[in-house]
Amino acid sequence: MEGFKHKTPIQIRFKDLDMMGHVNNANHFTYFEIARAKYFDDVVAEDMDWQKEGFILAKSTCDYKMPILYYDKVFVYTKCSRIGNKSFELSYVMIKDESGKEIPLAEATTIQVSFDYEKKVNISVPEKWKKRIEVFEK
Predict the structure, then answer these.
(1) Domain of 102?
(2) Does the residue 1 lie in any domain?
(3) What's the Cα-to-Cα distance from 42 to each of 64, 72, 99, 131, 133, rounded to whole Å?
(4) In sequence order, which ranges of the chain are alpha helices (DSSP H)?
(5) What is the pLDDT of residue 34?
(6) What confidence category does residue 5 fall into, taking pLDDT thresholds of 50, 70 and 90?
(7) pLDDT on residue 2
(8) Which of 44, 81, 113, 118 is the most exposed place for a label (fewest CB within 10 A)?
């Protein structure tokens, strides 16, 4: 996927399927959450005490392109599409690999707000996070 450097494999679980035999749409957000956590671990690469500071999810949207089936080889591409003062936006493309061809399954965006869990207030995105994300995304 052009413009995306981070790729996370997704394991489809039998419990993710609905009566029609495809992944229920609610699971897409779990897959994006898995990709978001992996992106943060790989790119920001910082041990966090999530009981003190981190971020909260403020908004998520998803455009579904086609169904996901149990045996599909699914991946999520993730990139930071915007960094603001107190929030940042991640963009995602979920694909399946069919014999080396990447077929889009869904596209999504999420907005995360930096948050102080002890004081229960939003805070500025830490400068070291911004720098690491900007270096990775260049």
Answers:
(1) 6-137
(2) no
(3) 26, 25, 27, 14, 10
(4) 27-39, 127-137
(5) 98
(6) very high
(7) 87
(8) 118
- Stronger pLDDT, 51 or 98, i.e. the higher one: 98
Domain total in the chain: 1
Domain of 123: which CATH number?
Answer: 3.10.129.10
Q: HSE-up of 135 (CA within 13 Å, CB side)?
A: 10
- CA distances 67 to 7, 9, 24, 91, Å, are 20, 17, 9, 20
Q: Which residue in 112, 127, 121, 120 sits closest to 39, CA to CA?
A: 112
Any domain includes 12: yes
Backbone phi, psi, residue 109, to 5°: -135, 150
In a domain? residue 16: yes
Per-residue pLDDT of 53-64, as tens digits, reads 899 999 999 999
Please, how many CA atoms are within 13 Å of residue 56, restricted to the half-sphere of its CB? 10
Report the percent of the chain where pLDDT is more than 70. 100
Task: Determine the Cα–Cα distance for residues 50 and 67; give it in Å rounded to an integer.
Answer: 34
pLDDT in the model for residue 86: 97
